[in-house]
Known about the structure:
Growth Hormone, Chain: A; two-stranded antiparallel sheet; 10 helices; 4 strands; transmembrane; DUF1275 domain-containing protein
Amino acid sequence: MKPIQKTIPSLASNSVHLAVLLGIVGGFLDAYTFISRDGVFANAQTGNIVLFAVNLATGEWKSALVFIPPILAFIIGVLVSEIVKIPFLRELLYSYRRSILILECLVLIIVGFLPSSVPNIIVTTSLAFVSSLQISTFNKLDKWAYNSTMTTGSLRTATQAAYAAFIYHNAEAKKQFKQFFVIIISFLFGALLGTFTTTFIGNTSIWIAAGVLVIALILYHRDKGYIRKTAALTKHISNG
């Protein structure tokens, strides 16, 4: 048995460039809804569940109910992302990943037209829905699982990879650390951008995130994938 390097074609949806753009959108949307829509998170359902529990425990029943719709919308989004993978639907949509990017972009554009007088529940549930579609559809970075709309898992993975890279001098772990670190920074940048633009521009600032998605869509359309190398095992069989 001898290890050799084997090249494997990988999907454009797994590229770090696309992951960076989606990370920016993820950070932006959380900052946008938190600032402009009553402190509700579009992506971080853990935060919404905690806030629901806090309000429930303190007797703020009406305030607690605000957090239920985005949680339910998130669940529905995950279910939809699985349904579109059914073979005949995949053929109908041609590329379900591209279709989901287009849908998310359209929702962000529409939300930007909605005035502040529109009930927050409409905006937060819409964004939670498309956020869950993004999470469920674009969930691999190269060959590693990741999340483009929250950083807890990425922070854990990056820390573990950093340990393996610097303690054991593992080249693969070093690559993993670099890529996940970039994703964390992109999310942070998106959150900062979302905070400043939502504060000074208002509700239409979400069109910036829609613009980033357009770039992601173009990148996904033009990118035919990439080649990565992986270790494979081969056997030398004697003819003797």
